[in-house]
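Much of what follows relies on a compact textual record of a protein's fold. A record is reproduced here so that you can trace the correspondence yourselves:
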Amino acid sequence: MLSAARRRACCEAGCRQRSEAGERLRYTINHATEREFLSQWVVPFLALFSFTTVSAFASCLRDAAAATMLTTPQRTSGSMAPRWKRLQLIGSGASGQVFLAVEDAESTDHSPTRSTDGARREPPTYRVIKRLFLDASDDDIMAAAAVEVKVLRSLPPHRCLLRHFDDFVDSDGYLNLVLEYGDLGDLERFMTRRRKAGRPFSPAEVVHLAFELLCGVRHLHRHRVMHRDIKPSNILVLHSAGSGHCREEKAAEKRRASNAANSDAVDEHAEPSLPGPGTGLLDDPPTSDSVSLRLADFGISRVMQTGSLRAHTVIGTPNYISPEMCESQPYTYSSDMWAVGCVIFEMCGTGREKLFGGENMMAVVCKIAAANVPTLPAPFDVLQPLVAAFVRTAPEARMTAEQALQHFFGAQPIEGKQ
């Protein structure tokens, strides 16, 4: 048995290690953007000048960057950022915890009751805090965390991507991501619940969800981000009219309506309706109570830089990886499109079976190499060409998200944030 003093010393040592891990993560995240900017833009530009001029200018840049980082306040205070209040633990695992949270100003009342002046109080806007346990000795884990924060910070908001509101490293050295709340869970669990309840997806619902998934993937690829792990468990589901940011959506709709009344200009951020009869795959528009998708989990995303448009690391979930990844060949955005085809096929059966399933890894790899797509039963056979456009052995033969939206849907994709 350890003495009380020994246990206290071990506890203090653990706290110091976690604090060091937090400082290391802050440094990795803050300096990633600086290194990327220097390597992509500054160095090629300075190559036109003499060595003396380059050294002097680079020194000025470093001093300016250091001054900026020193004057930037750290978003860390105690075990929680002061802006957010945790309500309850809704998930936990070996890699971290997930909490339901609200902004601290809204945390005094969590029900839509009436205020003292008789006005009806709006319910709070729920968020999710994803608290990641980081092993400072594992460079891969630290790099993945830094990439996720970098992607979340740099990507312009989009309605089909999970929204990122804040991030901070707490006093225990753990990275906390404040994200949009998916009130219906992930797509895999949502399909399981629908299937057990005897309510499988209709073709109209699958097309609606495929449209939103393609819009999200298109947004990632347009900003040179490859997801690399698209699968149902990394796609969150929300009520279309009852999502965690419903109030923001309604406010945006009011602003667009007001602008339209005062101007003849077309709002470029307005969400288009799904294609109607004769314009594409969908014969009937989805019902008003349909759900919406949010592509999430960018922990293993890769930001593809100009001149390096192929990745080499084999990563992802076996059932959704492309043939070139199985063969350890370089791959690019088309690998994401292969995974999209697998997810759409799975949605047609409401998660009943995976396109490339198997009892072991070898069986899965053999099926992927063959790339045989079973014929979808009626009435889902209308989606067969869409799945086949992505599940092709040759990467160059697969449609991009942009091409698929134009070819199959005949409608403008969802642009910008909602």
User: Anything to note?
Assistant: The chain has eleven helices and nine strands.
